[in-house]
Amino acid sequence: MCTVSLSSPSVLVRLWQSGIFVPRPFPFTEGTGRLLPAENFWRLRKKMNWPHSCISFCWIYFAVSRLRAVETADGKYAQKLFNDLFEDYSNALRPVEDTDKVLNVTLQITLSQIKDMDERNQILTAYLWIRQIWHDAYLTWDRDQYDGLDSIRIPSDLVWRPDIVLYNKADDESSEPVNTNVVLRYDGLITWDAPAITKSSCVVDVTYFPFDNQQCNLTFGSWTYNGNQVDIFNALDSGDLSDFIEDVEWEVHGMPAVKNVISYGCCSEPYPDVTFTLLLKRRSSFYIVNLLIPCVLISFLAPLSFYLPAASGEKVSLGVTILLAMTVFQLMVAEIMPASENVPLIGKYYIATMALITASTALTIMVMNIHFCGAEARPVPHWARVVILKYMSRVLCVYDVGESCLSAHHDRERTHLTKVYGKLPEPNLKTDRNKDLPRKKEINKLLKNDLGCHGENPQDADSYCAQYKVLTRNIEYIAKCLKDHKATNSKGSEWKKVAKVIDRFFMWVFFIMVFVMTVLIIARAD
């Protein structure tokens, strides 16, 4: 009788899926898939065709054995190959048959992500995929002896690895690649792909911040081997950016790779390295919205302090408030930038704006001093009256209360008529006694009639004449006081108008300066 042992139910399933074996209801299970009790088994034994069943079971056994042999062939040969390769292998020595032969290492870098760019400490943190390829002369085999096995994957610490390190690393911790498996090919070619998080030093040039471009170098080379022992090559002309995850702050414009061979004064051997230059451009939208635009808006408030009336008493307060706001923005930029001699572009803009605000505040104080000149001050000089009150006030459209461009036009017409027809006569309170005597008598006669002095009674006439003289003296005194008061007010109003014209002049000058400075900053950034 033939006996069959099926150690794994999954084998039958795989045979059924491949079409080698099609299961039928087992004779003594009655199509249910469950074994019958022992007493029923002997009753059905006579009904079964035992020779046919034995042949079927033998075919099943043969198919299962063959499938299991195919399934475990790779594992057996790989295990045998592993034992044969590493029986006398040492990963401490450079794997070359001739010690004078150079071992070539091919390096390829794939940039996956920029984790951080610390401008203040000048450190670039990047997530890289590093691929290193080299030949190991002691790890080769004939594929025919191992059932056509052409490659195996083994832990990387079992084989010799080149000591390729990042020369310009900027952290105390190790930034070497992870100990992942290597792919070993039958001809000794080893491919090692490993991820690594690197922190490298990057000299940040903040001259054009926030419209700056940066170049960060990643230099890889052997730490102990010279160029006559281990030579390093770049697999591509640039780093691979196909799997790069876009960064929110930086745009990557390329990653060219260059091989360098350096000879030091202490040693005659060459030392090769491969330098990958990461070309970065800052995304400036965040800094434009949060730093530049508020500064521009605040800077345009500085000229408006000249438009504020001097009598309000808030001109200096506005200038000081604007200056404090600009100082806060300047401190925010200083916290981001490294402590270097290069002043960022936005920092220059802040300094220039603060200088303008300081100058405007100082000029505001001077203008307020002119505005509050009273009767004790000297009269407005002739040159100031001509240049400021006559010409500049017209150009800047500065007029007193009640004046307008129309009234100024009438004044110009009156001046023109005066030149053509001569000066018109003006009334004068002080008249000469010897001149215009008839008119004086007529005025006195009218006054006497108003006072009731008709000359009928000499005593009454003398009394009325005495009252007339007193009244005349009082009128002359009042007229003199009014004239002095008018002269005093005229002197103060002239100084106020001078201050107003100067205010308007500096307002337009500072508006133009702020606008030109903003345009220059934007043009410099482009």
TrEMBL record:
One GO MF term: acetylcholine-gated monoatomic cation-selective channel activity
Name where it's found: Synaptic cell membrane
Question: What catalytic activity is recorded?
Answer: Ca(2+)(in) = Ca(2+)(out); Na(+)(in) = Na(+)(out); Mg(2+)(in) = Mg(2+)(out); K(+)(in) = K(+)(out)
Q: Where are the transmembrane segments?
A: 286-309, 316-337, 349-368, 505-523
- Main subcellular location: membrane
Tell me the InterPro entries matching this sequence. Answer: Neur_chan_lig-bd, Neur_chan_lig-bd_sf, Neur_channel, Neuro-gated_channel_TM_sf, Neuro_actylchol_rec, Neurotrans-gated_channel_TM, Neurotransmitter_ion_chnl_CS, Nicotinic_acetylcholine_rcpt
Q: Which UniProt keywords apply?
A: Calcium, Calcium channel, Calcium transport, Cell membrane, Disulfide bond, Glycoprotein, Ion channel, Ion transport, Ligand-gated ion channel, Membrane, Receptor, Signal, Synapse, Transmembrane, Transmembrane helix, Transport
Can you give the residue ranges of the Neurotransmitter-gated ion-channel transmembrane domain?
291-521
The record, for SUPFAM superfamilies, names: Neurotransmitter-gated ion-channel transmembrane pore (SSF90112), Nicotinic receptor ligand binding domain-like (SSF63712)
A single Pfam family it belongs to is Neur_chan_memb
List the record's Gene Ontology CC terms alphabetically.
acetylcholine-gated channel complex; postsynaptic membrane
Show where the Neurotransmitter-gated ion-channel ligand-binding domain sits.
79-283
**Superkingdom per UniProt:** Eukaryota
User: What's the protein's topology in the membrane?
Assistant: Multi-pass membrane protein
What family does the Swiss-Prot or TrEMBL record give for this protein? Belongs to the ligand-gated ion channel (TC 1.A.9) family. Acetylcholine receptor (TC 1.A.9.1) subfamily. Alpha-9/CHRNA9 sub-subfamily.
Q: What is this protein called?
A: Neuronal acetylcholine receptor subunit alpha-9
Annotated source species: Canis lupus familiaris
What gene is behind this protein? Answer: CHRNA9
